[in-house]
Structures
1.
Amino acid sequence: DVKVTQSSRYLVKRTGEKVFLECVQDMDHENMFWYRQDPGLGLRLIYFSYDVKMKEKGDIPEGYSVSREKKERFSLILESASTNQTSMYLCASRPNRGRSGELFFGEGSRLTVL
Amino acid sequence: SQKIEQNSEALNIQEGKTATLTCNYTNYSPAYLQWYRQDPGRGPVFLLLIRENEKEKRKERLKVTFDTTLKQSLFHITASQPADSATYLCAPRGGGNKLTFGTGTQLKVEL
């Protein structure tokens, strides 16, 4: 089974701190994604990557950056956390080839910024 | 701009009945549409995909329809069970490598 592992299920950080959210997938997928999920707003795409060292902005990239140095790992970075970045963060991966184009999600990282 | 609409109100139904969830989209023509299930505090899990040239797709107790004229997909769960209680997300796929999700509809199946 495909496994997407997010490093932390729950984090509490202070305003202004630098935050790293790590995501690792074990199925050699080319594409990886970071979403945030908020009540009433659904999943919104922050950044995605279709190859090592490649990244593309999603719909809400402001205040975030990403890093993909290895194929299996995609990191989301909050350079200076703010309270409006309190959210559930979901990482997902998808292969280039596949019948359904389904996304495989991690369990999520719930971040609270105080 | 592209918009996806799912019923924001929870759908409560009795065990054994058929649940029908709606997904409407505007301002684009998706090549396919996916449905996901999400349990509280967990990541979404893929259920079904239906392509633009397919009118209906079935998988066990699940059935999805796709009407590109109405710009709508319906998701049915027949013989619903309490274990089907979850939030269901639709995700029409437009151009590029992105998948856009609706806000989801919460389904509660009562005994």
Note: Chain B has no helices and ten strands.
2.
Amino acid sequence: QQQVKQSPQSLIVQKGGISIINCAYENTAFDYFPWYQQFPGKGPALLIAIRPDVSEKKEGRFTISFNKSAKQFSLHIMDSQPGDSATYFCAAEVGPFSGGYNKLIFGAGTRLAVHP
Amino acid sequence: NAGVTQTPKFRILKIGQSMTLQCTQDMNHNYMYWYRQDPGMGLKLIYYSVGAGITDKGEVPNGYNVSRSTTEDFPLRLELAAPSQTSVYFCASKTQGTNTEAFFGQGTRLTVV
């Protein structure tokens, strides 16, 4: 199965708070899990990504937590700022030695609003 | 650097008309993708290509066709436009292998009336 399930659909956080977005997948052939950020009228842009052999990756205020056994991964945005207001997509890419190698599948997206 | 360029930015089609959405990249990427974005539905993969002459279906290929005659270009063809194809279309490209960033174009907003 190629689906990537993302929740919540929308999220409102106060400035300085923590934003948490969750994703789950079924296909064990997925080998790479990026998060993309999209501002209105723009194409998505890579924010942060993780491989399944790592349980956590942190870049500044953004952290990915990865649970391979549960087939779940999440994005945490610490000290959320109004400038973080955007739509966030989790994604998963099929790894080598699998059918559909490099097929890049996205979740449904989460619209984040950070209020001042 | 231009990156990934999509044309047109906006288009209104009548039911049954045909059109081609253009996508070109100047980063010499092997992999290219076409997605459609519907409200609340995220990005759905239509077709993708791993190199010139090689294409494969994604999640929602019906009603679309693609070709990849060069590394740079990956046009998406709509043969008989239907209202269900009203969406924002994004083209993306990335270099070979996993763990590499996909670069997206600015999108084409298509309305079928």
Note: The mean pLDDT of chain A is 93.
